[in-house]
Fold this protein.
Amino acid sequence: MMDFALLSKYGISCPKTGIANTWQRAAGMARSFGFPVALKISSSQVLHKTDRGGVLLGLKNEDEVHKGYDLLVARFSHVKIEGIIVQKMAGRESVELIVGGKRDSQFGQLIMLGMGGIFVEVMRDVTFRVCPITRQDAQEMICELRAYPILAGARGRKPVNRAALEDTLIRVSQLLLKEDPSEFDINPLMADENGCVAVDMRILR
Amino acid sequence: MALSKKVRNLDAVFHPGSIAVVGASREPNKIGHVIVKNFVDGGFAGKVYPINPNAEEILGLKSYKSVLAIKDKVDSAVIAVPAAAVAGVLEECGKKGVKGAVLITGGFAEVGKADEERRIAAIAEKYGIALIGPNCMGVLTPASRVDSVFLPIYKLGRPRVGKIAFISQSGAVGGCIVDLAARAGIGMSKFVSYGNAAAINECDLLEYLAQDKDTEIIVVYLEGVKDGRRFLEVARKITPKKPVVVLKAGKSASGAAAALSHTGSLAGSAEAYKAAFKQSRVIEAETLEQLFDFAKIFDQPLPTGDRIGIITNGGGMGVLATDSLEEYGLKLAKLSDESQKSLRISLPPYANVRNPLDIIGDADSHRYEVALNAMMRDPNVDAILLIILFQTAAIDSGVANIAIRASDLGKKPIIAVCTGGEYTEMHKRIMESYGVPAYASPSSAMRAIAKFVEYAKSKAKFR
């Protein structure tokens, strides 16, 4: 479960999110966040939103938001709806990263940076440090990834915002030391030239 | 770093004026006999007191019933009595004012007797004794001929005096490495097998060695540390002054199988150690061979850059060296115009005066000297890889002499590669004995150079 409050407490950016009760409000939010956006059903009666068709991704303009809003309302007409969540989605040029933590019996909190997504364990392009980390540690972690050239702007991409990524690592290190979770994931952390946004997270106390 | 009393007392372990061997024996195949013999035959200049209640004399030395029966002062003790007798012996040592002790005896925490081990540690603590062990193989100080390693000298070679201190949690692994190092001509300032580390642990030894004037390089074989955070802090303070090379064994258990997160499944104890090593600038070796491959290169002056000059009397070796150089992220030096001009004059017309500098299969010692001098003078060369194939007709021992003389100048790092059999090995050993690190292959040399350069960079010597 995404704990926005916890992340924002440590200054870790989350995607811009709002809840709308009319399609006009939804379209207005989308316009102010910037496209593309995702629409998600908000209802205590719908637990697995994706499985039940309650999530629409990649809506590119107000017209699509309007149609999407109407579709979700119709699809869930049988349950009590609290509203429709509007969430800004990362741009196409974003890089999916993972930033995580684990309590080690010998060294205490470890922080991990790696290439994110669902194949994290397969690619194993990850690197660790013992918390707390310095800015230099953060810089070295970034440069150590095999996929570093992608972050630095391979194939004509815009390089990701290095300072923002370093800040995120340092803030996660602070979060880990303060909260002392047994395991922690931000996956994916979407990084692009503007900054980093935690799209999903998981914390095990 | 202010040292605690027990750490300061390690002086008595490494440089004692007098030593008692408790559990000394007349039986040649007993540990207590071998240790006395090693002190006597090894040429230890201080007093040796065998302790054995049932013997009058051992190896020509008067034997005592207990350390308390000795009139003069005793700096240090080597203890090799049955586990049940250890506490009593240690109490006597404390009363006698013995400052350091090496406890060879096993049968403590490693067999589940943690309480017994704590009791021993408490006695050492009470008297401020620097206690090494229990369950260890002993200590060597080649310079003062301290040798409590209980393996016979004819079976386990003792290294020459050098600048590398080697501490090993495992006695078996430590012993093999010492034997190999001795054979390869690598020198040591100290060797410590620290066993169960009941009182003196790896961090205490690191703190001591950081201030030891005879030690310039620290090599560690670890299976685990007692306190990860302290290790990180201690190592962090030492590495800016002295390089620390570590081999961490026991890495296969990666991540917890039952982990619920991606991070949890990827973060095993190996990753934690790796992270700590990186943060403290500890140089990590992946294999036993790398441990001393990496350590011995620090006999040379630190490089001021990553541009490598290669000299070879075999073209193929130059190609292999260049491949490895790229693999490890080093740069091929571009020889200055001046070097090229002078080499053009001195080398035969069929030699190519580019880096890698192939001085051709008919090169003799003189040609090596010319090439080496050019690279030593060239401001574009930060370190020199000297490949010598000893198999050719024109090469003889003179070339080793030239390498050693150039290395003695201490101007630039000179690293030798000698690939071959017995004749080659002999010369490798000679060069090694005079502080020229010599490797069996271009790749092992280049990997060590890469670590060397990385360390030099972290010390902000350049860039």
In short: The mean pLDDT of chain A is 92.
